[in-house]
Specification:
Length: 368
């Protein structure tokens, strides 16, 4: 943004357009492996992404690639399949991963100091990232399968698995800031066998980072799991995901500054299915048409303003919905089946009707 303004002031506005056009014209398509003989070929993904100009496409042939890959310019990275062959697999290199908080595949803005810089898109699809045998020591940091740092783009049809070194394994991590306007979409992907968090989204404290998660499968039975999906100081849409984790939270939202929409997801097996943290009192987060099954508490609120509506919540061992005496919540038109308490800790500031209860010992309890 600052570069654009300086060009306008200096009268050289046409120069960035010429540079952009030149970059677009010089973009190319290359391949890693030998499955596309008509294209320039590289033996590793790292070599290919370093060699091509911005906005290029790097195709990856089926095979196993023991390397740690960093992308620092806009591009498309796409795995190929031949016949019924498997997707390309990025594995841990024989010498181990480099860094205190290593990511096996990383997309990151090359100059994070530049304010208001929009970086991307980096689009990644049809790849598997496998953390088996990482040997990573959790006392030094975190292990991540795929990481976006101050970068926009789309992750589609990826599988991220086995980031489980001992309690610090993350499948996907997405980091924004309070200055950069960034969007990331994660869709039709599988994240499993992690031992901390499946998909973790963090902003720097503003409302410029918007992440959409749609039609993903997130699953882990590790006893150290903190969350299947976690949003911290971020906003976006979470829809049609299946989250099956045996840890603390299936879906945890701490979006203090803005709003979230959580709809048509299925969450099962957690202590708390959907955890709703505080948000800006001028904004409202909506949790609608989800299925919560066999969680300790189906939905739990920590503060803020939430609409909890038209959800199906079954076999909660503690309570289907716990409003936690936080007020300003609407819980209506939910169908609750099989729970000791249907809606717990409601206050006079909450709206808690109408709802439908089946096999519930106590439909509603007031805040003590």
């Amino acid at each position: 943004m600052r570069r654009l303004l300086s060009c306008i002031v200096s009268g050289s506005f046409a120069l960035p357009l010429v540079v952009l056009a030149a970059q677009t014209l010089s973009a190319k398509t290359v391949v890693v492996g030998d499955c596309q003989p008509q294209l320039v070929s590289y033996s590793t993904i790292s070599a290919a992404v370093a060699a091509v100009p911005p906005n290029s496409t790097v195709l990856v042939c089926p095979g196993t690639y023991p390397e740690q890959v960093t992308i620092s310019q806009p591009m498309t990275l796409k795995g190929l399949k031949t016949g019924i062959g498997s997707k390309p697999v990025i594995t841990v290199p024989s010498g181990g991963l480099v860094g205190n908080n290593p990511a096996q595949l990383s997309a990151q803005q090359p100059d994070p100091i530049e304010e208001f810089e929009e970086f991307g898109p980096v689009n990644i699809s049809n790849l598997i990232v496998d953390g088996t045998g990482s040997g990573f020591d959790c006392s030094t940091g975190e292990l991540t399968g795929i990481e976006y740092v101050l970068a926009s783009g789309t992750l589609e049809n990826v599988e991220v698995r086995n980031q489980n070194p001992g309690g610090c394994g993350y499948g996907i991590q997405l980091f924004g800031s309070d200055l950069d306007v960034l969007t990331v979409n994660v869709r039709n992907s599988r994240v499993h066998n992690f031992d901390n968090t499946g998909i973790n989204v963090e902003d720097g404290g503003g409302s410029n980072f918007e992440v959409t998660l749609s039609s993903n499968w997130v699953a882990s039975t590790s006893g150290s799991v903190q969350a299947g999906v976690a949003y911290v100081l971020s906003q976006g849409l979470i829809t049609r995901n299946l989250i099956v984790v045996g840890g603390q939270y299936g879906l945890s939202l701490f979006n203090f500054f803005c709003c979230m929409t959580v709809t048509e997801n299925t969450v099962t097996g957690s202590n708390i299915g959907i955890n709703l943290g505080a948000n800006d009192l001028s904004e409202t987060s909506t949790v609608t048409n989800n299925i919560l099954y066999k969680n300790g508490k189906g939905i739990f609120t920590l503060g803020g303003t939430h609409i909890i509506e038209s959800n199906a919540i079954a076999q909660s061992s503690i309570a289907a919905i716990d409003l936690n005496c936080s007020s300003r919540n609407t819980a209506e038109d939910n169908v609750i089946f099989g729970a000791p308490v249907g809606i717990a800790n409601a206050t006079s500031g909450d709206t808690v009707a109408p709802n439908t209860f089946f096999g519930v010992l106590t439909s509603t309890t007031a805040c003590p």
